[in-house]
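## Example record

The block below lists the input lines for one assembly entry, exactly as stored, with component labels intact.
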Amino acid sequence: MTAAIALIRRHRVAAVILFLLVFPLLMPYQALAINILIFGLFAVGYNLLFGYTGLLSFGHAAFLGVGSYLTGIGMVHLGLHWLPALLLGVASAALAGVLIGWLAIRTRGIYFAMVTLALAQIVYYAFYKAEHWTGGENGLRGIQVPSIELAGFKLDFLNPTTKYYVILLFVAAALWFVSRLLASPFGAVIEAVRENEQRAAACGYDVARTKLLVFVISAALCGLAGSLRALHLSVVPIDSLHYLLSGQAVMMCLLGGMGTFFGPFVGAAVFLTLEDVVTTMTSHWMAVVGTVFMVFVLYFPAGLWGTLVRRIDKASS
Amino acid sequence: MDITPSLLALQLVTGIALGAIYALLALGLSLIFGMLTVVNFAHGAFFMVGAFVGLYFMGLTGNFWFSLVLTPLVVGAIGLVTERFLVRPLYGRGIDYPLLLTFGLSWVLIEAMRILFGIEGMPSSTPPALRGAVDLGIGFFPKYRLFLIVATAVVVLALWLFLEKTRYGLIVRAGSRDGEICRVLGIDIARVWLAVFGIGCAIAGLSGVLAAPTRAVNPEMGIHVLAESFVVTVVGGMGSLVGAVVAGLLVGVVFAMTSLFAPDLAELSIFVLMAVVLLLRPQGLFGKAGLMG
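Predicted structure tokens for the full assembly:
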């Protein structure tokens, strides 16, 4: 049993991708699976900053939103093909990450959460007002992706199953990237920064530059999630930039397990499934999710996956 | 549109009245943070609860003053329960956890108000005694806005007297500087924290009931207000009560003046102010250097 777990650990990307390949078969309908995939990526990107580097940002919806909107603007206003538009979305989110991160990194601790929230609000208001480009309150509409050409194959993007696997391609690439990053010396440095900033600085690491770099990478990943979301929904709602979505990223990470590789996905799956199930029973799902979240903060801070990983670690040692 | 001195003065008063609400909110936030090192992400929600409860009492009794006194007590009581059962177990676990918990709490509070009062919100109007305008020589100023400024000044003064001139205020100040030594001196610091959290939430509730006649009262009103209170706190300096008041007024005036000259940029203007302060003085105007930036 321990050998199996060690094998999964060593090849965690493959294991997760394998799971995600069969995931649609476990889900009642594909739209939920696609949503979990996209928000899973969003949570993974956020987890890089929150779980692994210990920086609690409350403005990550800005990057999801920028990715979505710029992909949409690229396709609707600039007439780009879907792939260049997607890359535009990611690049723009990374740029937003540089700007917001540079300002936010100047603060520490609790200030960081407040500043990121406030800076994300700037993005929200800016996009809200730029009605000509973004559609303002009604959101950006008309992102048409009827078919996708990949390696010579023409795929019907409107088919939910096909859509899932195309999006999975990008998510898998992103997950592989994150795994490599975490296993690299840089990954060790960001965890060192989380554990004790001053000690990391004393060891000679440029803490500010590390934080900024992680912030930008995290922003780019969330931007990718946003771009994929725009392609999936064919519209970009103004809510994509709202602070509540930033809060959802935090919730998903905590519910699943911060600082673990697969935790954010579990968190996203639990959160979205809960939302789906609860909304059929009552319209007060915010209260239910809020209460569940508080219970987790109080009694299961390691999250579902995180607690499981800890139990396995304890059992095998 | 002619920019006359009286128009400027009127907008200035509007700005100060708006700033008064911001100042109260930031005061509550800073008080809780300075004492407990807890960022109350539910502060906007308590503001919103205050507005709803205030309107409810007004509807029930028809008496604004009665509601003005009772609402902070009710909201403060909710704050006491929150601290005792939700926040207290998290002490010692790290600075992020109470923040996360209060964030979850804000979701529950928003939904609770939706359940109790409906999703549309409640209609609000200025209490009859404070309607109309007053001629101050340079122009006519709305009575209610002037009342807001005066009421806030009274609350700030009362808080200052409490903290500087009473024995309990001395304990609160000592506790925020060093809780451990206070314990050593035999003071039950847990009770002090409980009281401070309650007071902070009560002030938030008070600002809600005061602000209710000036804006739309719906369950979502606390969300924008939270971001704006954070701006005020960053500009003024977290944990600084002087900073909270000064920055609150400053932010209110900036917003009002920008509304006059460039209405589209009004909401952005206060965040730009925050960005500028962050660039030049990351700890805020009155904040302690090194503590947070």
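Strands of chain A lie at 140-141, 147-150, 153-156, 235-236. Residues 16-236 of chain A form one domain.
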